Amino acid sequence: MLVAELFFGRTIGAGAHPSQVTAADWNRFSADTLARSFPDGFTVRDATGAWRDPASGHMITEATKDVLAAMPDRPAEFARVELARVRQAIAVYRRRFRQQSVGVLLNRACGGF
Predict the structure, then answer these.
(1) With contact defined as beta carbons under 8 Å apart, do 63 and 11 qualify?
(2) Do residues 11 and 79 make contact, with C-beta atoms less than 8 angstroms apart?
(3) What are the tens digits of pLDDT across the range 7-64?
């Protein structure tokens, strides 16, 4: 199987008054983007992420959604389609919620449904 794990930080903006991706915002993103990107299903976990801000050098922690999606490991031409879906979900989230980045891990694993 191809396994994608994506880390979506929920803080929008920086400084004294950052906002959060709300539960309603997340639910819309999940329904209109993740469901289309991962039509066979996915798992969402609440987490706390930490990353070093390159501008300030400070360690930042934030509420995070950890999304795990397993897809059939198909021949290379089909795998590229699956990876394009991962990239599309990341691009939509970054644009919609003004994010610098979305963390992603891609692996092959033994598994099945």
Answers:
(1) yes
(2) no
(3) 999 999 766 678 999 999 999 999 999 999 999 899 999 999 998 888 889 898 999 9
DSSP secondary structure, the chain, as one string: -EEEEEEEE-EES-TT--EE--HHHHHHHIIIIIHHH-TT--EEEEEEEEEE-TTT--EEEEEEEEEEEEE----HHHHHHHHHHHHHHHHHHHHHTT-S--EEEEEE-----
Q: Are 20 and 10 in contact (CB under 8 A)?
A: yes
Structural domains of the chain sorted by starting position, each given as residue range(s) with its CATH number in brackets? 2-107 (3.30.70.120)
Cβ(5)–Cβ(105) below 8 Å: yes
Q: Where do we find the tokens 């970054």?
A: 94
